[in-house]
Task: inverse folding
């Protein structure tokens, strides 16, 4: 940069910021006079920040080369021993400093004027994505973008007014382009709001760089050649910017804020479904593999694993015959990451049986051949429809479940024969305020026949289907007369089950296995032969053998929190040990017990002292996954090596 | 003498219009080069290419032995330029402009600039926009000379000057600069003015340099011949160096360059009844070269 050129530019263009500062004086006087008239002051403040200052910026930018054109001084200037790039940068820096100075003075003054100051702080400009931008942030973005565009274009136009209008048009054009990128490609996903300033910065850099290249390279005596040179450059720079944005979307997806972790285990693998993609964690190899990188994963989706396959869904947008259709897509992939394919797509437009339905609760059959899922029809509130689909995408079928007074339902999984699913059913709430009836249902996908069992069963999610799908565990309350005094908190899903029972899913025969006080969780071991449970509000840990029909061992764990469940339970070391997340003092720890419930060791959970809720634990082969769903972190612990590894 | 600037095969087109076809010449230090050509022949274009203001399409410019790239700037410290119309920043004062201009040149001679301003009657406090065209030209001249350039390019700047100033400018400034070792490329339409200062003559026509000779050689070798015949005039023979021929009943007038014994013998062979041979002014020589007809082959010294 050249100091003399900067100084000359300041001397030449100082009237513009001077005019802006004079206007500021008038505004301050007006603001003080209109302090009582809130609406007027709102409009005035908004106009200053969103219209006047950006217009000052565009005026400054458009004035850059106007004297050179008007006085014909470009030939003089270019024949001086200064590189054209230095001329360009010197002018740019000089005018940018004038603009920055003006904005700074406005900031200093407006942040001290009573009434205006509060309005600027309080008023935020909302985006469709729900994010908001401060007035100063928008003012800066508008001003700087318009300044750069106007400055860059001023090299090519000898008419300032033409440059001003063209700059506003270009700005509006890019603004529309960004809005459509955000809407059509990014669905106004809040995680990608950061791209808006990035895109503006890239446009500013592209326009500026194109202007600089054309300024330095092309023949200034030829208006046509200048414009062609500029257009050639800007096409190149915008293409490069598009690649950068595209890469930012792809790379950004890998580092996106994780707002939810979906986890499903199958064998020794865990399938993790989150906004960064679909991953498989192989506990044997201790490897994490990204199976799918669609940036929209975790957004309106669900996951299920089984039978060597993983199924998941996410939203996507398709435009067909000019019709914009935003709908859920169902995808399937083999456990090894091969054969990824979309097998089904619902639709917003009325072209199929699932148009406008929200799909959820996917369950892969144990052989991986069939998927059942539920849909909620448009405006259906609590109504649910059960569907099934072959894993190759064929054979979509819906089930007209003849359950009377059916309110809502949830699919808990497949039975061992791959012919039935177990549903958790809620009847419609009674009008007389009596308790809503809730029960379990074994539903045949072949005959549509259904069998009711397990009325008022609790812990369907914390006990539920055995690994082989031949049994179902649930908790039940004892009649009031048999109730011991309650201890500890209730089960996370409500209720204080005092009796654990197991159903044979072939015959639906129920066997009551353990009676105690306030069971909070029960877990099948990987073979389905044993059950680990927490009773007495989470103060006692026990192991029950199905084959022997007795409690193998039981131990006291110490006190539990009164109102929160502070323990999570799983089988570890391939079913040889039991792992427990527990609160010790003010930090969460991982406790591992041998089968006779002798405690092996205590391991502090990373950042365990910061957790406010108990992390979930999942036994996976010889390792244990610890999911802190409060802050969406997933750890894997290897008890053999006593080593933690953060997966997400 | 070593060459200060060498131009080889320079070409420039604007769209489909070829302005410079194949321009080649060389400039030596301490010499004033009269640069002539009709309007639109590309003198300003050539000057702007030499100054790096616009790029050439082809060819090469070598300054002090170094090829000049379009984007280079350092070499311009050694080149002064006075354009046809002096476009400066109107809002600046004379003193301010000269300070601004001087900041670009390490060899800026502030004392000389002060003296020149005084001699040329330029008010340092005057705003440029209030100056007359002639005063602006003087300012351009001071700005160019103040840089103590090794090469000064003048693109027909003197047309706006009054006669005494022009006289001072040509004799006092240009000649003085040349005597100090500056090469001056002086493009002008006021051909007669060159006679006072030019050492060398370059004529540009049809995108090429058609004459590149020492000025005194040109003056000495160009002749106008008038021939009278009894009866009708014969056909003008193929005499090399014929620039212009006009024939009417019993009379032929021709301009020939270069004039030598062979040419004279050839003309005498026409057996005119009367023959007059006279030397030409520079203006007449220029008209002889560019007045009509196609571009002629380049004559080089």
Result:
């Amino acid at each position: 940069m050249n100091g003399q050129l900067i100084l000359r530019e300041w001397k030449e263009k100082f009237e513009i910021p001077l005019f802006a500062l004079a206007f500021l004086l008038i505004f301050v006087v007006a603001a003080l006079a209109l302090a009582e008239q809130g609406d007027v002051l709102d409009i005035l403040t908004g106009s200053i920040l969103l219209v006047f200052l950006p217009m000052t910026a565009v005026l400054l930018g458009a004035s850059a080369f106007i004297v050179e054109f008007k006085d014909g001084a470009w030939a003089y200037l270019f024949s001086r021993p200064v590189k054209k790039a230095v001329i360009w940068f010197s002018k740019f820096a000089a005018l940018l400093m004038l603009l920055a100075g003006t904005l700074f003075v406005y900031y200093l003054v407006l942040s001290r004027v009573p009434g205006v100051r509060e309005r600027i702080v309080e008023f935020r400009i909302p985006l469709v994505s729900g994010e908001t931008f401060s007035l100063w942030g928008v003012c800066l973005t508008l001003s700087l973008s318009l300044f750069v565009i106007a400055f860059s274009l001023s090299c090519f136009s000898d008419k300032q007014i033409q440059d001003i209008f063209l700059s506003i048009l270009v700005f509006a054009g890019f603004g529309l382009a960004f809005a459509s990128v955000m809407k059509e490609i990014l669905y106004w996903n809040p995680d990608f709001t950061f791209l808006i300033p990035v895109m503006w910065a890239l446009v500013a850099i592209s326009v500026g760089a194109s202007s600089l290249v054309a300024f330095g390279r092309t023949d200034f005596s030829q208006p046509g050649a200048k414009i062609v040179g500029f257009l050639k450059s800007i096409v190149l720079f915008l293409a490069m910017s598009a690649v950068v944005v595209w890469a930012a979307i792809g790379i950004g997806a890998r580092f996106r804020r994780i707002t939810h972790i979906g986890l499903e285990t199958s064998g020794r693998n865990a399938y993790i479904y989150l906004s960064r993609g679909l991953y498989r964690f192989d506990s044997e190899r201790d490897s994490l593999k990204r199976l799918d990188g669609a940036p929209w994963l975790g957004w309106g989706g669900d996951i299920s694993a089984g039978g060597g396959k993983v199924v998941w869904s996410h939203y996507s947008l398709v435009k067909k015959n000019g019709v914009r259709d935003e709908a859920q897509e169902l995808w399937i992939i083999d456990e090894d990451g091969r054969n990824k394919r979309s097998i089904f797509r619902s639709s917003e437009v009325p072209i199929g049986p699932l148009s406008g339905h929200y799909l959820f609760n996917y369950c892969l059959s144990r052989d991986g051949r069939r998927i059942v899922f539920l849909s909620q029809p448009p405006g259906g509130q609590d109504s649910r429809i059960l569907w099934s689909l072959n894993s190759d995408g064929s054979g979509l079928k819906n089930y007209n479940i003849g359950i009377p007074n059916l309110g809502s339902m949830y699919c808990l999984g497949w039975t061992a024969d791959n012919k039935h699913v177990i549903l958790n059913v809620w009847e419609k709430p009674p009008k007389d305020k009596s308790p809503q009836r809730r029960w379990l249902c074994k539903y045949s996908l072949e005959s549509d026949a259904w069998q009711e069992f397990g009325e008022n069963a609790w812990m369907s999610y914390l006990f539920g289907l055995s690994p082989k799908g031949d049994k179902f565990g649930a908790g039940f309350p004892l009649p009031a007369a048999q109730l011991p005094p309650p201890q500890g908190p209730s089960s996370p899903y409500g209720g204080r089950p005092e009796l654990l029972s197991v159903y044979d899913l072939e015959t639906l025969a129920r066997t009551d296995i353990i009676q105690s006080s306030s069971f909070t969780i029960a877990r099948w071991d990987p073979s389905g032969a044993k059950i680990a449970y927490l009773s007495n509000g989470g103060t006692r840990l026990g192991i029950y053998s199905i084959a022997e029909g007795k409690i193998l061992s039981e131990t006291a764990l110490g006190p539990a929190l009164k109102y929160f469940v502070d323990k999570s339970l799983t089988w570890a070391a391939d079913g040889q040990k039991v792992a427990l997340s527990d609160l010790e003092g003010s930090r969460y720890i991982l406790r591992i017990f041998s089968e006779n419930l002798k405690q092996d060791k205590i391991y502090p959970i990373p950042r365990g002292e910061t957790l406010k809720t108990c992390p979930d634990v999942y036994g996976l082969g010889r390792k244990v996954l610890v999911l802190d769903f409060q802050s969406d972190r997933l750890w894997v612990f290897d008890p053999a090596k006593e080593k933690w590894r953060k997966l997400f | 003498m070593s060459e200060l600037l060498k131009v080889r095969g320079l070409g420039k087109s604007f769209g489909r219009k070829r302005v410079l076809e194949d321009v080649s010449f060389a400039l030596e230090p301490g010499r004033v080069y009269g640069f002539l050509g009709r309007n639109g022949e590309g003198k300003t274009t050539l000057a702007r290419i030499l100054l790096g203001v616009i790029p050439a399409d082809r060819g090469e410019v070598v300054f002090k032995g170094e090829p000049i790239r379009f984007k280079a700037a350092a070499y311009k410290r050694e080149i002064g330029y006075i354009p046809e119309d002096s476009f400066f920043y109107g809002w600046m004062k004379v003193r301010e402009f000269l300070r601004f201009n001087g900041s670009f040149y390490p060899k800026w001679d502030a004392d000389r600039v002060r003296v020149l301003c005084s001699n040329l009657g330029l008010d340092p406090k005057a705003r440029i926009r209030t100056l007359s065209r002639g005063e602006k030209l003087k300012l351009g001249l001071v700005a160019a000379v103040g840089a103590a350039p090794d090469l000064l390019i003048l693109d027909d700047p003197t047309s706006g000057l009054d006669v005494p100033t022009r006289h001072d400018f040509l004799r006092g400034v240009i000649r003085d600069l040349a005597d100090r070792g500056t090469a001056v490329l002086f493009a002008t339409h006021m051909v007669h003015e060159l006679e006072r200062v030019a050492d060398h003559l370059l004529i540009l026509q049809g995108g090429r340099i058609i004459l590149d000779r020492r000025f005194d050689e040109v003056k000495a070798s160009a002749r106008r011949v008038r021939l009278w015949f009894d009866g009708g005039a014969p056909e003008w023979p193929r005499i090399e160096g014929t620039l212009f021929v006009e024939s009417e009943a019993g009379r032929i007038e021709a301009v020939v360059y270069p004039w030598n014994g062979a040419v004279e013998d050839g003309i005498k062979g026409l057996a005119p009844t009367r023959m007059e041979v006279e030397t030409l002014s520079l203006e007449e020589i220029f008209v002889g070269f560019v007045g009509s007809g196609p571009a002629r082959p380049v004559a080089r010294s």
Summary: The mean pLDDT of chain A is 85. Chain A has eleven helices and 34 strands.
